[in-house]
Amino acid sequence: MEMISGGVCAPKGFKASGVHCGIRKNKSKKDLALIFSEVKGPCACVYTTNLVKGAPIAVTRENVADGYAQAVICNSGNANTCNLGGEDVAREMCALAGAELGISPSDVIVASTGVIGQPLDITPIAGSIGELVKGLKGDCRDACEAIMTTDTVPKEAAAEFTAGGKTCRIGGIAKGSGMIHPNMATMLVFVTTDAAITSEMLQKALSEDVRDSFNMVSVDGDTSTNDMVSVISNGLAGNTAIDSEGADFDEFKKALAAVTKTLCRKIAGDGEGATKLIECVVTHADTKENAVISSKAVISSSLVKAAMFGADANWGRVLCAIGYSGADVDVNRVDVSFASEKGNFEVCKDGRGVEFSEEKAKTVLGEKEIKILVDLNSGTETATAWGCDLTYEYVKINGDYRT
Amino acid sequence: MEMISGGVCAPKGFKASGVHCGIRKNKSKKDLALIFSEVKGPCACVYTTNLVKGAPIAVTRENVADGYAQAVICNSGNANTCNLGGEDVAREMCALAGAELGISPSDVIVASTGVIGQPLDITPIAGSIGELVKGLKGDCRDACEAIMTTDTVPKEAAAEFTAGGKTCRIGGIAKGSGMIHPNMATMLVFVTTDAAITSEMLQKALSEDVRDSFNMVSVDGDTSTNDMVSVISNGLAGNTAIDSEGADFDEFKKALAAVTKTLCRKIAGDGEGATKLIECVVTHADTKENAVISSKAVISSSLVKAAMFGADANWGRVLCAIGYSGADVDVNRVDVSFASEKGNFEVCKDGRGVEFSEEKAKTVLGEKEIKILVDLNSGTETATAWGCDLTYEYVKINGDYRT
Q: ipTM of the assembly?
């Protein structure tokens, strides 16, 4: 398995495009994206757990109920959520895309991100659907940009692996936390693969993967109403379809994880206002659940996040977060270290502080990617969570007047 | 029942003092507080739920196991937590106070707030215990200041009520979230009363009260290792001891709630970096639990907090927080309004946005105390939670280098 370039267009038979259709007022910002597979194939999705769900999620659920899809249409600039008639508009988006692509509207996945609580006007989408479809090409940069909100960089990843002797590819694009007024942060991830795999095994792979990937990312602890991760496969790699567990499924999962975890790091590192990616690795937990809860609590703590912004080795906040996380942990066994490309240093042993060099701490924590290593010394389970620092800029982005 | 002045010295027979003993380097900041009752009496405590607990909590638990206490000693500048020998130092603090006051060390409640992970030197405390006891007087301002860390104002409250025909008083002092390097926020609240009441009924009153008071406050979602609320009663009001439920117990609880809720508002409004107090009132919930979970999620949301800082009526974030809170809520019935002394305006009806005046929104949200009113339209239960806005200053306070 190796990482390759190309994002969602890396797998055979996938094309993408992105245009400015007019939902966003700024004409230099694309706001409508399309991903299309030459061949219809098995798909899988996971959705936000928020009880408030965007209209596109309801429509996508209906469309993928048969386990198949062939295209993704996604707009930015309006979340199509908490408004009247949102589902009709989402269905109309699928109908427009389906008609122009010559496929069934029920094979289209639809997503939206942006303003909540306002009607989404179908007019600009209808007016640009022709241009959007004509623009389909083997380069996903435009699509990647069209789903961005306050993301500062486009996010894509792809990997190549072998299944049944055939070279297969998985690629993805993602948008992280962003806002427009009034907003909420939304995470959208669209994954493609040319591997042949059944809907059931694809859903199994995705559902298992998100537990260790996107469910382990937090920018600000606010779960959006529109979060969605979808995978479409088209089988063009020519491998014997993966229809059960085994070596091929394992390879597929490894490549999927490589793509999703790369996107996780990009989403966390580009969190609103972030200057640093924070990765918390919890090892030697007695149960997976305790590892997961502990690592997420650490990267979610406002105090830990602010300390990382200040390059402050404030390990008491790490221990404190583990203590209130709800994880069943023997706090007297906990060791904590900080690490980056500039080295590592231990700050806490058996739940108590140890001496360390403040000079080394500043050097290590001055880097852009910080690891917080927590050893629970109680078992064999591990978890990794990704977050970012809390900065003045986060407050500025989210505290600004909408007007 | 009416609010009165005097804090913990409002009830008969209580005195307090506060000195700079030398734990903190800044000599203008007091760092050792004492509260003393002429008469030993029933007491009650509640403690942090963090698995990492400060040494003073272990020692206080031992000392109040018999249900009685007569004094509180509390230092700031060092949390006496996650270090070696912390419990011995906490016991020594009780021994020193007990010897100087002429009472048993086991009748002393001990608390600490400040630096975590460093040994607490008993020397400055021993050197100042004489001065501390000599300084006892019927004015709690010095004690109130001595427990402050980054609190910007001292926090006290008191109320007077009638039980069994006798005038009784309850008073309290509190410290909210503060930090020194490396820190954690700690909430400490010490309450006194001259009402006669049994240990059992006092504990019952306190345990029930904190559910609606201190457990409903969040500054940054980080539960400290040293949080503690204690109440000492001395019976000097001369009422027939409250030993069961009934009218007197109800009056006591009302007065206790008046004091604790006043302190809650002061703690939240003086949260680190805060410019505004945010109160979320959830009404018409089907269960108390759903009301509590919803209101706490709203005031804990970083996005809501940042929006309030910017006086932005970003109601989508309120709905979003309720949606991911875990409360079982019908989101299509939710109404949301914002209110302050300058009026109120509705932003969401039945889970969907309604038109409102941006001008009015800015006027209302420009105030120092903001109410977010959430009507779940599903039952009769209510909950109120208190928080504050998220500001540049919060990031600055918590992101600064410790050096």
A: 0.77
